[in-house]
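ok trying again, last paste got cut off:
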Amino acid sequence: MQATEHPEIDAVVIGRNEGARLIACLASLKGRARRIVYVDSGSTDGSVESARATGAEVVELDMSLPFTAARARNAGLARLAGDGSDFVQLVDGDCTIAPGWLETAAKFLATHPEAAVACGRRREDHPEASVYNRLCDREWDTPIGEAAACGGDALVRRAAVATVGGFNDGLIAGEEPDLCLRLRRAGWTVWRLDAEMTLHDARILRLGQWWRRSRRAGHAFAEGAHLHRAGPERHWVRETRRALAWGAGLPLAILAAMLVTPWAGLALLIYPAQVLRLALRDPHPGRWEAALFTVLGKFAEAQGALDFHLRRWIGRRRGILEYK
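nice, full thing came through this time. structure:
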């Protein structure tokens, strides 16, 4: 796609210390988006200079303020204010845009005026590198059609995002589902298209990385449920309750019962039984590892959810949870 063919598409890329991945990301957009804005969050690897060398506009965030991806995306959208295109491709700096995606997504939004967001299939670049990368690849294989939310990569209608005030700067995770919820409440729709969108490089090679990512998800569940608990959507209420039940409430109850009788420890067999149940009802490849880490992940998610509520009660916000 040449910029002159689709001048209505701009791009906002966010990142920090992405190195060669950022260069690949910007290259996948060059000549395909009218303006490319890169928002840097305190990189020390020369990302700013590399981005400028590609012709991208660079916004350097003030790192004396708390960083969130939401704040970075808002800064990129703000840079486009006054001379922005109708549609903006949001993309993380560790992703590359698939050939044909911008054409497909722009055509969809142009012919569906009620749609605010179009996303497609994000794939993991190296799923063979670790079980954690494979889990990410499965996570992103969401149902095609009208959706409740998108991820960090999506083509958005700039005016629609502006009508709901953009992203919530204060969220350390889960900012995209929060935005999509507010868009849907305002009458807009969100769509997952049957098209390749981005290739992502997670590089999650250790259990600790995966644990921190799952903990961040639990924090997002709890904060999202707290913010929107009064709405009819029950945003992330079920996910939060499951995490707290399986990852905190149940094990604590079993340990308390074991103080009365050690036989109560047999109740811990409910966890392998849950792995078995989840695996048997999953028809897709990799079902056993997915079931195992779904159950194990509840402990990390519960940790994140409890951390959110504890900090909320004492009035201290958490900084961003990174896993790379």
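cool. Strands lie at 9-15, 36-40, 57-60, 87-92, 95-97, 115-124, 145-147, 154-157, 189-200. The chain is about 45% helix and 15% strand.
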